[in-house]
Amino acid sequence: MDRDDITSEQTTGLPDTQELDQATRDALEALVRRFRSADGIGMQVLGLVGGQAENLLERLPMAVRQRLDGATRAALEVAFDAAHRSRRSVADRPDWLNTAVTTAMGAAGGAGGLPTALAELPVTTTVLLRAIQGIAADEGFDVSDPKVRLQCLQVFAASGPLSRDDGTDIAFLTTRITLTGAAVHGLIARIAPRLATVMGQKLATQTVPVLGAVAGAATNYAFTSYYQEMARVYFGLRALARDGSVDVETLMREFRLLLHPPKALR
User: Fold this and answer.
1) CA 50 to chain centre
2) What is the rounded (10 degree) CA torsion for 124, 126, 129, 131?
3) pLDDT tens across 203-218, in order?
4) In this structure, is the dihedral angle defined by the CA atoms of residues 71, 169, 185 and 129, taken in order, positive or negative?
5) What is the pLDDT of residues 29-59, one digit of tens each?
6) 88-105, pLDDT tens digit by residue?
7) Residues 19, 21, 24, 30, CA torsion sign
8) Model confidence pTM above 0.85
9) Please, are residues 233 and 161 in contact by the beta-carbon 8 Å criterion?
10) Percent of the chain with pLDDT over 90
11) What confidence tier does 116 reach under pLDDT thresholds 50, 70, 90?
12) Is 249 exposed, middle or buried (0-12, 13-18, 19+ CB in 10 A)?
């Protein structure tokens, strides 16, 4: 079994009694803090545009809502190839610079209303995926490895910055990636419906009258910050499993316990 394969099946059995050394525990606690704090900015965006995340999609025309799944799947297909190809000519950028770039793109997309917001969708998705790939490389993973590229895509299975889940959505951290001939299309088909809902919320914020450009910038800022944090958690866990002496079952068990400590310990 590969040490970076953290699977849901591996975390459902009896807990291991293996102890964590202090350095590993400190690293794990830092990842839990990242996971918990990732949605804060997204909630500020909802305050800016008014309403709740589940109501945002109702602001979109029915024709747009019906096209969201297909548009998101197409954006992911384009991003998967384009983000990887860009590595040949464009160096990885720090998180803050990725955030600045997408924030500017969100302002431009929101300024023109829904048509420009829709046109911006595949570009933003590509920049986000490229940022995730940069984080994987920063954690010491080979982004030319097809498995790692799929793992980068898997980060998009997180719940999204506008959906506070109280740390319950960690399935994307524990899903094993299987390499097959249709692996890319299969993973995109699984992720696209969920990401379509997330991207629909983003599009809806960019159509807010008067606030379109501001909301677009704020939303892209939240999206980029969120997915970069999720990537740091995702690949940080895999780096701990790869480099340390702790098996993945124990690592994920401890992550869950730190995320949801027993009531007696709270």
Assistant:
1) 24
2) -70
3) 888 777 667 788 888 8
4) positive
5) 999 898 888 867 777 777 767 666 667 778 8
6) 887 788 888 888 888 888
7) positive
8) no
9) no
10) 18
11) confident
12) buried
**Whose structure tokens read 């709740």?**
52
Locus of tokens 């305050």: 47
